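FORM 7B: Structural annotation worksheet

SECTION A. Query
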Amino acid sequence: MSDLSKHPENSRVGNETNPASLETETAWDSLFTGRVDDSTINFSIGAPGPSILSSLPGLFLSASSHRLSTNLGSLFQYGPEVGIRQYRIELAKFLTRRYGDKVVEDELLLTCGATNGLHLTISSLVKQGGTVFVEDPTYFIALSLLSGDMGLRVVPIRMGEDGMDTEHLEQMVVKEAARNVGGVGSDGDRFWGLIYTIPTFHNPTGTTFSTKTGSRMVEIARQSGLLVFCDDVYNLLPYHQLEYSRLKSLDTSGPGSGSVISNGTFSKILAPGVRLGWLEAPSHLVERLTQSGVLQSGGSQNNYVSGIVTSLLELGLVDQHLDNCIKVYKERMDAAVGLLEEGLPQGWRVKHPHGGYFLWLVGDHGDLGDFCQWMEKEKGIVVLLGSKASPFTYMGEVVGGNMGNCFRICIAFYDLDKIVDGCKVLCTAVKEYFP
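SECTION B. Predicted structure
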């Protein structure tokens, strides 16, 4: 239960509580069912912070007025399975502009965000009990969905400096295909397996895959009858020009083919609370996705909000907000990298990702679990221990230390001053614990 006594603005008048104050507490102090404690700097939070989100009410008021002044009520009805056409048209224009690479509306399908996009794809396109190849490390909560919810067999693949180790991937694909019922191929209209990947500003390492690595991954998938599912949630937060916009652009399959899906979301570039995103997929896969029982029953998964975001896109307000996010995040990331490179002892490594949310720190003292617990308790600094992002940990196995010598920090939630303070304390903590 929250302690309202810590917030004097939540004072009662008679038996009434100021509703705006309660809303403020919920918005700023809670994340999911947890709480953000002012006594700590929680670098594990992978979400935009108050200063980023506080600029949005005015933008949404403008967009809502724009949309509802001309809409005669259709947004309050069930919508088409793929999302309203105007949303997909404006989204295609926005993505084309930001990627510098053509995106067409007929290859877009509305989702309720990246997690929903992943769930929809697997439940519609991948055979039950199929295989999923994932990076080691990877986005740790995705493992709960891939294995726990969807029942897929998880096969970890090593990471290298340029992304997923494609030689290891190829070896494991051949091995899994041999044990897969029916061998390499698909079960009816469903893929026997998929590669789940975060190729741009990877979570948790921040790595962006080279063009060579990305192209080889697509080639292996095409030869093996695998789906490639890219969590492209950070692609639109680059601090410099990328080699390629997204992995899907490297798929040179002709019309009526192609097996790479780009999973996008407004959570990282606008606001998590809108629960809106998109899948960009070859048109033949979009058609198959629309046959999902969920979409056939409910239609558009977030029809009303998609209309408001359509106006945000049309009025250029998403561009405005995103440009500011990139500017702010770059400043924070530059400061964090600079402080860590200067302040960490010799033997520790940190590499500037040049985009996205995350920094990956590699220590030289073996497993850092005890250190991270001590640092949280004694110094008030919380990080995400690397072993939590290793699929081997999720599988109950120990392979090569399970990334326990690494941890992740995020620059998205806190303002620059807090990030500077936190990085300084982190460096001091390392030196104190490992004299």
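SECTION C. Observations
The CA atoms of residues 218 and 251 lie 6 Å apart. The chain has 15 helices and 19 strands.

SECTION D. Sign-off
Analyst initials: ____
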